[in-house]
Specification:
The structure holds three protein chains of three kinds.
Chain A: H1 2-6, E1 7-15, E2 18-23, E3 27-31, E4 37-38, E5 48-52, E6 55-60, H2 63-66, E7 82-90, E8 93-101, E9 103-111, E10 129-134, E11 140-144, H3 146-159
Parallel strand pairs in A: 2-11, 6-8
Antiparallel strand pairs in A: 1-2, 1-9, 3-7, 4-5, 5-6, 7-8, 10-11
Chain B: H1 3-29, H2 34-53, H3 57-74, H4 82-100, H5 108-119, E1 145-151, H6 162-171, E2 175-180, E3 198-203, H7 209-215, E4 221-227, H8 231-245, E5 255-256, H9 277-304, H10 307-330, E6 332-334, H11 336-353, E7 357-362, E8 367-369, H12 370-391, H13 395-399, E9 407-416, E10 419-426, H14 433-442, H15 454-459, H16 482-491, E11 495-501, E12 505-513, E13 518-526, E14 529-534, E15 538-543, E16 557-560, E17 563-569, H17 570-573, E18 585-591, E19 594-600, E20 602-610, E21 624-629, E22 635-639, H18 641-647
Helix pairs in contact in B: 1-2, 1-4, 2-3, 3-4, 3-5, 4-5, 9-10, 11-12, 12-16
Chain C: E1 4-8, H1 12-24, E2 28-32, H2 35-44, E3 49-52, H3 61-70, E4 79-83, H4 88-97, E5 101-104, H5 109-120
Parallel strand pairs in C: 1-2, 1-3, 3-4, 4-5
Helix pairs in contact in C: 2-3
Classes of the chains: A mainly beta, B alpha+beta, C alpha/beta.
Chain lengths: 160, 660, 121
């Protein structure tokens, strides 16, 4: 219990050049990429569905909500790509979604103290980021606010 | 009540009176201080509450009016004026006399209350009544009754105790107590704070509904009490009561058509067994998985071209289909389970609203999937309520027409192909298409140029933005909540249609699929993507004539045996890239009265389709009703034919289409 | 085991009346004079049921119930709201906040005992 208060266990992964972290408690599993099915008109946040062991899950792309630009997508090795299956709360309801990652790094325990709020002048959308911390190589690791992102997706989808 | 306690109360009262006085005086200085207003209100409230507790009923009654006046001040409806403070202080000064039981020979108290009422009028101060608790009239059933109850989801977290409830019910004489465990989910989904068990039991004759209500006073539960043997008997009695109460001809009581046959009696000799619903759901899930595996096996067999494997796969397909049908049949529940609720509703509304109504039910034996039945109850209640509340004329208005003075509401349920049609028809005032149209334009739902069929106009009342508080009298409230009804029906993959004739009545038709879990699908392909069309809506399939390959500016129409049928190109609709093949197919689909063609690259075949819901995240995909998993494990989206027809609305009426 | 009932009311006389009645019937009774006080007592000691007034200074009954239901010690404890008003809006407010039921004031000692028995068994 004390560890939970002072530390956070997170999974770190990258999309393009950006390193991200999500709480281990939100992660259900990490799987190899599956064949995707395009959902016409579903919007850019979650444009596909995948079959994860008999359940049809939306497959999300965090690049757009987090404003991640990948100048060299060809450099990302194909065989490192993974899908993260996450449990998120969308509009108050627990929902399972998958998101794409270019590479999954590690499970890390980070001191809660080291997590900082987004600087006012940052280039990231503050409504979708919970905070950030300095990674092992001094780079910024973003903690996305999954509930906020998926809730916004659902709202956009409802409007579309 | 002991004298000790009374002494405590009187001590408290002295303090309260001081606080009240101080509050009122301070209010004169700062009339807008919300804290002071709250304090005065609270003091009054406490005096009233404690006074009543300790037997000072005159005091409590007096304070009640005093408090009501200050409630308006607190709500900001009445300002604090010097006059109000003066009256407040005068009223306060009456309190010691009231406690002592002094008489009020000059009527000062009434005068003060009247003055307060005048000052704060704008909603009358009710005559003194602290006796808010109205004892429900005891309704005693003279037949044994079946009680079913289930605690609400959060009841346990709120401290409700099913063991206490059961012991109290036993005290009432409950027997044959049976726990229904069918809603208990798998361990992973189990929420320890929730009670999933429902109970059913027999209560002896003579137990009043009020007794049962008492048991559930401290437990948030859904419970129903129904006469065990013959439903009609109790209802008949109620009608007779109503009839004897009806004064004369001008307000005849609602009449009711007796059900044509007997309720399904538990005593039926047929060899039937009870199965918890959860087991049926589990069976259905397994059948769903079997169907998916069967699709995979068939595909493998086709590839292998091994005749023995092919014939085995065919055999499995046939068995899976049979098993599916058998399982679906087991889940079927007759409409009757809903109808008795509706009878009560109509009966109640009819007498509440003073609109005599005859309620006629046809097709109570029509069966639907239990999930559909469960979800159907609320929408139907809404539609029936609308029919009597807004559809039926007042007796006076109805007398002006040549219609029977007793209104008629019909509910019918029939099987039509793979669907169930549920129709609610009233013979009330009907709706004016012109007015709805005008209002929809005003609300910005359609443009004034829009060309709509009558059905499309009436469908506008189902739009979320159609109805608001200020509605035109004739339609008043017709649309309230109807968007919710539509959403529920569409969630069941059903369609809702409205037809109405001004002065003659309104008909609402719900068209629902027989089952939610599995459908026969037609698998098609466009641009290497595979989609599924529900076979039940597919009418015919043919090749797209070569001259129609290129989209026409006048809109795309096919001449099918002399009839113009519009068509859409699924590639366009779903933003597919690349060029279509030379040879394409048209699938003609039908939903309601509308018909259209869907152009696809090729037809792959038919399959049994286990329907999976698409997540909320992807609601934007408007013409998709769900997804299914194909034999190779990939996902195929199920095209929502009804929505496709609605989306391509203007195309449906070729005559109106004008070349640009 | 003796059951403990917490009575929360700003009126000392009502509090006393409830306490006396319940103690005579063999219950252990804690008293709190407003919502704040009630919240502190309910979260710091073992309480089997709570009877609370609605309208109180510092923290009203509804707010107390809401806060209590957020607290790990406050789940599952039956809470009965006292009200001089049987208005449905108040009832539904209380229900939404997490009350199990309500009792309309004035009530007799017998009624009080019946309610507590109904709630605690």
């Amino acid at each position: 219990m004390t560890l939970a208060a002072s530390h956070k266990i997170v999974i770190t992964f990258s999309i393009g050049p950006q390193r991200l972290a999500i709480p281990a408690t939100d992660l259900r599993e990490i799987i190899d990429p599956l064949p995707t099915t395009r959902v016409p008109g579903a919007g850019d946040f979650a444009p596909w569905v995948v079959n994860v062991r008999g359940a049809v899950l939306p497959l999300g792309d965090l690049r757009l909500p987090l404003g991640i630009n990948d100048p060299n997508p060809a450099e990302r090795p194909e065989d490192a790509r993974r899908f993260l299956v996450l449990e998120a709360v969308i509009g108050g309801e627990p929902t399972t979604v998958a998101v794409m990652a270019d590479i999954v790094h590690e499970v890390a325990t980070i001191p809660s103290k080291s997590i900082e709020p987004l600087p006012a002048t940052s280039m990231w959308p503050s409504e979708f980021v919970e905070g950030l911390f300095k990674g092992p190589e001094g780079e910024f690791v973003l903690i996305p606010d999954l509930s906020a992102i998926f809730t916004a997706m659902a709202q956009r989808a409802a409007v579309a | 009540m002991s004298d000790d306690l009374i002494a405590v109360f009187q001590e408290e009262l002295v303090e309260l009176l001081e606080s009240l006085e101080r509050g009122l005086v301070d209010l004169q200085e700062s009339p807008e201080d919300a804290g002071l207003i709250n304090q005065v209100f609270r003091d009054l409230h406490t005096v009233k509450g404690s006074g009543a507790m300790f037997g000072f009923t005159d005091l409590a009654a007096f304070i009640h009016d005093f408090e009501t006046a200050f409630e308006k001040v607190r709500a900001g409806a009445v300002p604090v004026t010097p006059e109000l403070v003066r009256l407040g202080l005068a009223a306060r000064d009456q309190i010691p006399g009231l406690v002592n039981g002094d008489a009020d020979p000059d009527g000062d108290r009434v005068a003060i209350l009247n003055a307060l009422r005048d000052l704060t009028s704008g909603g009358g101060v009710a005559a003194a009544d602290i006796d808010d608790e109205i004892e429900a009239e005891a309704v005693t059933s003279n037949a044994p009754a079946t009680l079913r109850f289930k605690l609400s989801e959060d009841a346990l977290a709120l401290g409700a105790r099913p063991d206490i409830l059961l012991s109290e019910l036993k005290d009432l004489g409950a027997t044959q107590i049976v726990a229904d465990l069918s809603d208990i989910p798998a361990l992973d989904d189990l929420n320890a704070d929730q009670c999933y068990v429902a109970w059913q039991m027999q209560l002896p004759a003579g137990v009043a509904e009020g007794d049962v209500e008492d048991v559930f006073m401290f437990a948030d539960a859904d419970w129903t009490l129904t006469a065990t043997e013959v439903n009609e008997v109790v209802e008949r009695d109620e009608i007779d009561d109503l009839l004897s109460e009806a004064p004369a001809l001008d307000t005849p009581a609602p009449q009711q058509q007796a059900p044509s046959d007997k309720a399904p009696a538990a005593t039926e000799p047929a060899a039937s067994i009870r199965v918890p619903a959860a087991r049926l759901d589990a069976l259905m899930d397994s059948v769903g998985e079997l169907v998916t595996v069967e699709a995979r096996l068939t595909e493998l067999a086709r590839h292998s071209r091994d005749p023995a494997l092919l014939s085995t796969a065919e055999e499995v397909t046939r068995l899976a289909a049979r098993l599916r049908d058998a399982t679906m049949t087991m889940r079927m529940v007759p409409m009757r389970t809903l109808v008795s609720r509706f009878r009560r509703l109509i009966l109640g509304l009819s007498s509440d609203l003073g609109k005599p109504v005859e309620f006629v039910v046809d097709g109570e034996d029509t069966e639907l999937d239990k999930t559909v039945i469960e979800k159907l109850a609320d929408p139907l209640v809404h539609i029936l309520r609308n029919a009597i509340d807004h559809g039926m004329e007042d007796p006076a208005a109805r007398a002006q027409t040549d219609k029977d003075h007793v209104g008629r509401i019909e509910l019918s349920a029939t099987h039509v192909g793979g669907e169930v049609h549920i129709v609610v028809r009233d013979d009330g005032r009907g709706m004016s298409a012109d007015k709805i149209r005008a209002k929809a334009i005003e609300r910005g739902l359609i443009t004034s140029e829009a060309q709509l069929t009558a059905g499309q106009v009436f469908a506008l009342v189902l739009e979320p933005g159609f109805s608001t508080a200020e509605t035109i009298t004739e339609l008043s409230g017709r649309g309230v909540g109807m968007d919710v009804v539509r959403r529920t029906i569409e969630g069941l993959r059903g369609v809702i249609e409205i037809d109405s004739k001004l002065g003659q009545g309104t008909t609402v038709t719900l068209r629902l699929p027989l089952t939610l879990a599995i459908i026969d699908g037609l698998l098609i392909e466009i641009a290497d993507e595979r989609y599924t069309l529900p076979m039940s809506s597919v009418k015919e399939i043919f090749e797209l004539p070569l001259d129609k390959r290129i989209a026409s500016r006048n809109g795309d129409y096919l001449d099918i045996r002399g009839q113009f049928v519009p068509f859409v190109r699924l590639r366009h609709l779903f933003d597919c890239e690349g060029e279509p093949p030379t040879e394409q197919n048209v699938v003609v689909v039908e939903s309601g009265d509308a018909r259209m063609g869907i152009v696809v690259d090729r037809i792959i075949g038919t399959n049994q389709t286990v329907i999976k819901q698409v997540s909320k995240l992807q609601q934007g995909a408007r013409a998709i009703s769900g997804a299914t998993i194909l034999g190779d494990g990939t996902v195929s989206l199920i095209v929502d034919v009804a929505q496709l027809l609605a989306m391509s609305g203007p195309l449906i009426e070729p005559k109106k289409e004008v070349a640009a | 085991m003796t059951k403990t009932v917490l009575t929360v009311d700003d009126s000392p006389s009502i509090r006393r009346m409830i306490a006396l009645t319940l103690r005579e019937a063999g219950y252990n009774v804690l008293e709190a004079s407003d919502g704040q006080d009630g919240l502190e007592k309910a979260t710091s000691s073992r309480v089997d049921a709570i009877i609370t007034d609605q309208n109180m200074p510092r923290m009203d009954g509804i707010s107390m119930i809401k806060a209590l239901r957020q607290h790990p010690n406050g789940r599952g404890v039956p809470i009965v709201v006292l009200s001089t008003d049987s208005a449905d809006t108040l009832k539904s407010q209380a229900r939404e906040a997490g009350a199990l039921g309500w009792m309309v004031k004035p009530f007799t000692q017998d009624k009080l005992l019946a309610v507590v028995k109904k709630v605690l068994g």
